[in-house]
Structure formats: C-alpha cells, structure tokens
Amino acid sequence: MNKLYESMYDLIVETSTKLPKDVRRAIAKAKLSESAGTRAAMSLATITNNITMADENVSPICQDTGLPTFKIKTPVGVNQLEIKKVIKEAIVQATKDGKLRPNSVDSLTGANSGDNLGDGVPVIKFEQWEKDYIDARLILKGGGCENKNIQYSLPCELEGLGRAGRDLDGIRKCVMHSVYQAQGQGCSAGVIGVGIGGDRTSGYELAKEQLFRSLDDENTMPELKELEEYVMENANKLGIGTMGFGGETTLLGCKVGVGHRIPASFFVSVAYNCWAYRRLGVNINPETGEINEWLYQEGDMIDFSKEQTNEEEVAATSDASEIELEAPITEEKIRSLKVGDVVRINGRMFTGRDAIHKHLSDHDAPVDLDGQIIYHCGPVMLKDEEGNWHVKAAGPTTSIREEPYQGDIMKKFGIRAVMGKGGMGAKTLKALEEHGGVYLNAIGGAAQYYADCIKGVDGVDLMEFGIPEAMWHLNVEGFTAVVTMDSHGNSLHADVEKSSLEKLSQFKDRVFN
Ligand SMILES: O=C(O)C[C@H](O)C(=O)O
Ligand code: SF4
Fold first, then answer.
1. ipTM (interface pTM)
2. Whose CA is nearest to atom 4 of ligand 2?
3. From the alpha carbon of 444, which atom of ligand 1 is closest?
4. pLDDT of amino acid 321
5. CA 63 to ligand 2: nearest atom
6. Cβ atoms within 10 A of the Cβ of 432, count?
7. Mutate to test the pocket of ligand 2, among 15, 274, 399 (most ligand atoms within 8 A of CB)
8. What is the pTM for the complete model shown?
9. Cα–Cα distance for residue pair 282/455, rounded to 1 Å
10. How far is CA 315 from the centre of its chain?
11. Which one, of 17, 141, 119, 115, lies nearest residue 466 by Cα?
C-alpha cells in the first residue's frame, strides 16, 4: 500500500477545502429562497464567495477543521494498524501545510499538541466487510456545531412543544426542538443527523453515522422518510435563518437512523453540523493504496465563482449603508450604532477566545485594549522562513462561550466592540448598555473571506495558549460585520430566539400516530 499516504493526504486536503457537491446544491437552493436585501441573503453571498475562495486557495473552508473522524471499511486481511499509522502521518503533514488547524488540546493542561494528534485524536473507526476494496470516509466537524448536539431522554417536557412521549410523534418534537435550540450558533443553516434508540454513546454514534449519508438520498424506511421530509419542511418555518439572522432556510438536511434500545431507555440523539459540512470519501485499492474513486460525486457541481461576485451581490442585497470603524473607538461613536447597521472595520483588531477571556479576567492585558475591538477567532496561521506569520483562515468562533467573562472584561479594559458569531446573552447585553459597547456578528465559517481582509499580522501575545487561542494583533481592511447587539438594549439574537419559540409552538399538536 505504498500509495496510501498520498491517498489519505488528498482525502484530508479535499475534505477541508472543497465543499461536497450535494452541500453546494443545498446552499444554492437556500440562496434562491432568500429575498434580496435581507441579512440572510447577504450572509449567503459571503458564504458562497468563501466556498469559491477555499476552492481557489486550496485552503480550509472554515478555520475550525474539527476533530478528524474517519470511518473505514476494509476487506478481511487488510492491516488496519498500517492504515492508522499512515492516517496519522498524513494528518501531521496536512497540519504543517496549513490545511488543518492544530486542534488537539490536552484537556487537563490546555496544551495544544501542535500536530493534531493526541489521546483519541484523530478518531478512526474500523469495520470489516466482504468487498474487495477499502472504503474510507472523513468528516471534519467543528466545535461550534458539535456544542449544539443534543440528546433527549424520552419522555420529556420541551419548551414550546410540551410533552414528548415514547413514540414517533415524541421523536418529531425532539428533532424540531433540536433545531430551535441551536439557533444560529452552530453556523446555520445546518444539517442534522438523528439517532433514535441505542444508549447515550451508541445513540450519538448513530446520529453521527447519518452525517455520512448524501443529502440527496432517500430513507429506506417509509416512516423515517416521512419524518425527514416533515422536519425539512417545518424546521425551515422557524425563521432562524442563516447565522440566526432570521430567514427562510434554517436547515439544509435532516437524516434519521434508528437502532434498538433497552426497555428503560429511550434516547433521541441529534448531531448538528454547520453549513460548512465537510465530509468526503474514497474507495481505495488495498494492494496499492491508490484511490479508485471519489465518493459523493453524484449530480451537478455548482461553481459559485460563475455566479455574481460577492461585492456585487452584497451591494445588490444590502440596503444598509456601511459605517466605517477604526480602533480606538470612542464611546460616542459606539453609542451611535444600532442593531442592523453594517460596519466596515479598518486598522487594528485583537483576537481573543476562550483562553484569553479566562486569562484577562484575572490578569492584566498584554496590550492597551482601551477603545479596541476583540475578535472571537482562532485562526489557522503559518510562519514563513523569515519568521513572519500568515493568516490562512480566520472566521469567527461562537461568542456565547465568553458570556461569563465578556461584560466584565469590556469594562475592565475599556474594550468598545466584540465580534464573533451566534450572539451573546443578557449579561453581555446589560454590560454593552452600561459601558457603551457593541456586539458585531461576522459570518461563521467564512474563514477565507475574512483571511483576505487581514492585511498583516503585527504581533502576537500569549502564544503559550497555542495558535488558535493566542492573542493575534491583526491589521484589517474592509472587514465587514453586522451590529446584532447595541448599547441601547437591543439584541437581534434575543428577538430571533423569541420569535422562533413562538413559531415552534405551532408544532405542538400531534402529527404522527
Ligand atoms: O473553533 C473555532 O474556530 C470555531 C468553532 O467551530 C465554532 O463554531 O465556534
Ligand atoms: S465556525 Fe461555524 S462553520 Fe466553522 S466549524 Fe464552527 S460551526 Fe462550523
């Protein structure tokens, strides 16, 4: 199998950089469903532009290249240990080449291994089968959407929907609720894999297994096919929309699988995947290790670059004029911003995510943050031979994780704007009002689009936290984002959550007997 290394490397790079055909078609359909001038249309224009940039740059679609999860079927007699070894080598190289972000973190010390290897990382699941070739599939599922996975133990009470009992209708309610509870935080529009039955572990495994299905396939079980169709039709009426900005498309796919359970347990497990649904597969010759065939190749390939350019589209779809922002920003300027404004940032911003927020809550800042912008982002960075850093991918991360710290940190250091995705909660909203601050929402997953707005890396602090968690000093040009929480007590996220809960409650009545 001397070609196996090359095959695995190619599988990793393709998965990270090229969105599969079925996903592109679902995104194109979502785009058609949104009216021009809406925030959803503007976000989808950025997303499709980002997909094209990832194709052209052969760079990660999203900076969070996830927990690499391989599912491999081998003919009897194939050496699985060798496959495992080769996969690890290919992972290390793809990380060095900036195709994967170093994403493997010691859970106790917080140390990043730097090469994407670690205890239990990558995940490689083997199975044997009777066929004479190797079927190797890979999914790169990021952390933001992983955090929105949910497991229900039936019977249960669900907000908006009431009791979910141990039957198909109870399952229906759980699935509808799972989409509601994700809001925009898992970078909607999403794809859900649902596992009915099993135990807490095998239920989630079954749910994730569904994510290996093609978006276009049809469930072979009539009742599950009906459930999938029901969810696709009705979850899209919740009005959560792309990034939780409101809109027509909240879900790109729903795939349901079922397994047996034991009498006392009845789990419905949901694996939520963002729009950056990176999964591919190959059939491999077990003698040579060469790729015989790429999987998920059915149907048309949408080349978004042949469509309108993003600038044209954004100009055509956005009725809001852009407001220029450059740090240091005054309190007066910040208080003039309102939810719905589109800002265009030039100049300096600092990245800060989980480790930085924790650090800043009980240490001094390494730089003066007065009037500054903090970007919730863990980029993919590469260092050249002269020692200069280059940004390879840099989209926002889910901001809500910083909720316990954010308001206090803004006040402590005089920070005027924080930017991320998915919005923040009541504590931050109150602090924005008291202190004079705004929350800016960038488009999740648009890592190439934003990397292109970063014109230079002027420094870095707290590198001991690892590349994604360090504080990078970025120099940006034309970095656009939407004000979704302002200093007057307004939050688009709170509004969408409230209205989607009202819509969810329309689905309270029994549908399946
Ligand atoms: O870790 C990241 O960069 C982003 C993460 O996938 C998220 O969605 O919050
Ligand atoms: S940032 Fe969004 S698109 Fe990227 S992995 Fe996280 S959830 Fe997915």
1. 0.99
2. 445
3. 8
4. 82
5. 4
6. 28
7. 274
8. 0.96
9. 37
10. 26
11. 115
